[in-house]
Design brief:
Elements: H1 5-9, E1 17-21, H2 25-36, E2 40-44, H3 51-55, E3 58-60, H4 67-76, E4 79-82, H5 89-96, E5 100-101, H6 105-111, H7 114-123, E6 131-134, E7 150-154, E8 164-167, H8 170-179, E9 185-189, E10 195-203, E11 209-211, E12 215-220, E13 223-229, H9 235-251, E14 256-265, E15 268-275, H10 285-288, H11 293-302, E16 315-321, H12 332-336, E17 341-345, E18 356-363, H13 367-380
Parallel strand pairs: 1-2, 1-4, 2-3, 4-5
Antiparallel strand pairs: 6-9, 7-8, 7-9, 10-11, 10-12, 10-14, 12-13, 13-16, 14-15, 16-18, 17-18
Helix pairs in contact: 2-11, 5-6
């Protein structure tokens, strides 16, 4: 039986059981937000040590296509969401038959495949960097040489710099394509960037939108390193990025929390990627905003009015990767020595290089002070060395 329209617009109240597909740090923060609001949560994740599974009311330790686990979740959960885009769209489609699912399977299917994502952004009339779809080596024959230097990205399962290669010309591109096993890829022109920014927003089932302040992002080895909110750019640029993110969400008919990454090149602002979930660059909202992105996710899923997304304090977030465990436990005393610093560790059982183990945020009434203190703490912890 399909979910009725009346059910889609109704409010789900505590202590209802909510479902989360994925047990990483984003799922963990969702569980925390849901618990604070009085809800219970079932997490489906195949990792016995998943951060979200450890604190959920129920942890279904099974694959995302495990029929028995899916049926169990459908029986116990009123509404279901996801914390990462690589959950099979078929799993979301299964739940959509009988349960409220936000975001919808169709939106996740678009975001989880780079070809579909790029084509959607272009066809929606939104600005995007020049790109070519590469499905076979023969496709390089039709690629304009002007696209080089470029980045070759696998269409599926690439994130945090994984499944990507910088290529200066056709020969390098073909070699990278072969190294990726001939998987479908997107060949995207490498741009001279002035800035990278992102917008995290929430859109409810009625089409109402709440946008968080634009964040300015910098990356290290393909992984987000620092986010600054508000972004240090013109009001006009922030307004343009926000307007583009809203337009994208509307054209995608998106319901949920959405992250949109942008490239800024001179007077151009281009959509880079979309994430159908809370976003790493939105972690500053945990400490800097009236409502954080995870509470907003709970609100959208349960049909409540969107929370106030205002920034109450300038904020700087710094990612903590497993690299800094090289000599044992990091010097957390150095972090706690900064009174305005808020430390968030994700409860992952094994640190390793490149793995996101946590983050910290520094908030201050003065944006420059927040940035300076955050950089002091970052250096004291040995981040980026």
């Amino acid at each position: 039986m399909s979910v009725k329209l009346a059910e889609l617009s109704s409010k789900i109240l505590p202590p209802a059981m909510l479902g989360m597909l994925g047990g990483g740090q984003l799922g963990r923060f969702f569980v925390i937000a849901a618990h604070e609001m009085g809800y219970r949560v079932t997490v489906l994740d195949p990792d016995l040590n998943s951060p979200a599974g450890k604190i959920a009311d129920v942890h279904l330790c099974a694959a995302y296509d495990d029929r028995e686990a899916l049926e169990s979740m459908a029986q116990s959960c009123v509404a279901i969401t996801t914390e990462f885009e690589n959950v099979p769209a078929e799993t979301l489609e299964f739940f959509e038959q009988t349960r409220i699912v936000r975001p919808a399977a169709a939106a996740v299917a678009t975001a989880q495949h780079r070809v579909k994502e790029k084509n959607f952004i272009r066809d929606a009339g939104l600005p995007v960097a020049p790109f070519h779809v590469i499905e076979s080596a023969a496709d390089f024959n039709s690629v304009d040489a002007a696209i080089y230097p470029a980045i070759l990205k696998v269409a599926r399962f690439g994130y945090d710099g994984k499944g990507q290669a910088r290529v200066s010309g056709r020969e390098e591109a073909e070699a990278a394509f072969e190294q990726f096993g001939g998987e479908t890829c997107v060949l995207e022109k490498m741009l001279a960037l002035d800035l990278e920014v992102s917008v995290v927003l929430a859109r409810d089932v009625h089409g109402h939108v709440a946008t968080f302040p634009v964040a300015e992002n910098s990356h290290l080895n393909g992984i987000l390193d620092i986010s600054i909110a508000p972004a240090r750019c013109s009001d006009a640029l922030r307004e343009k990025a926000t307007a583009l993110a809203i337009e994208l969400a509307q054209k995608l008919e998106y319901v949920g929390v959405l992250g949109v990454e942008f490239f800024v090149c001179g007077d151009q602002i281009l959509v880079n990627e979309i994430a159908p979930r809370p976003h790493n660059s939105g972690h500053y909202t945990l400490d800097g905003c009236v409502t954080n992105q995870f509470e907003q996710q709970v609100r959208v899923l349960t049909g409540h009015v969107l929370g106030d997304a205002r920034l109450h304090s300038p904020s700087v977030m710094v990612n903590i990767l497993g690299n800094i465990w090289h000599d044992g436990e990091p010097d957390w005393a150095a972090a706690f020595a900064v009174p305005a610093l808020k430390l968030h560790l994700y409860g992952k059982h094994e640190p390793r290089a490149g793995r996101k183990m946590g983050h910290f945020t520094v908030v201050d009434v003065n944006a420059d002070n927040a940035y300076g203190l955050a950089m002091q703490a970052r250096e004291a912890l040995g981040i980026g060395e």
